[in-house]
Amino acid sequence: MKLLETRNGRCGEWANCFTGMCRALGHEARYVLDWTDHVWTEVFLESLGNRWVHLDPCENAFDAPKMYERGWGKKLTYIIAFSSREVADVTP
Fold first, then answer.
1. Catalytic residue among 22, 34, 54, 56
2. Which of 30, 40, 46, 81 shows the smallest number of beta carbons within 10 Å?
3. How far apart are CA 79 and CA 53, in angstroms?
4. Rounded distance, CA 33 to CA 38, Å?
5. Is 27 a catalytic residue?
6. Active site residue: 11, 17, 27, 58, which one?
7. Is position 38 annotated as part of the catalytic site?
8. 22, 34, 38, 54: which one is catalytic?
9. pTM
């Protein structure tokens, strides 16, 4: 994969790659899209209370879903999560 060779890509490319890697390792993972223009990964972790945990490979972020609004000053709009089993509206 050119992305891994060059380490140069956009958030969507990194989220696609990272979500695929998580799934290949046996984790239940989903690709999450904010309609305003950002994507990230969430992984379902039993060890953290049986919940979906935010992971952003572009920002090196773990369990920090509020980082976009608090850190970036971004107003999230419509957020959709795509897993192997469902598509869900996860807008807070």
1. 56
2. 46
3. 15
4. 6
5. no
6. 11
7. yes
8. 38
9. 0.88
Residues 6+ apart with CB under 8 A from 28: 43, 44, 83, 84
Q: What is the residue type of 51?
A: R
- Whether 37 sits among the annotated catalytic residues: the reply is no
Q: Which pair of structure tokens corresponds to residue 83? A: 């897993």
Query: Tokens 């990230």 appear where?
Result: 40
Residue written as tokens 């490319």?
A: 13
CB contact at 8 A, 71 and 58: no
User: What are the tens digits of pLDDT across the range 38-90?
Assistant: 999 999 999 999 999 999 998 999 999 999 989 888 888 999 999 999 999 99
Amino acid in the structure at residue 75 = K
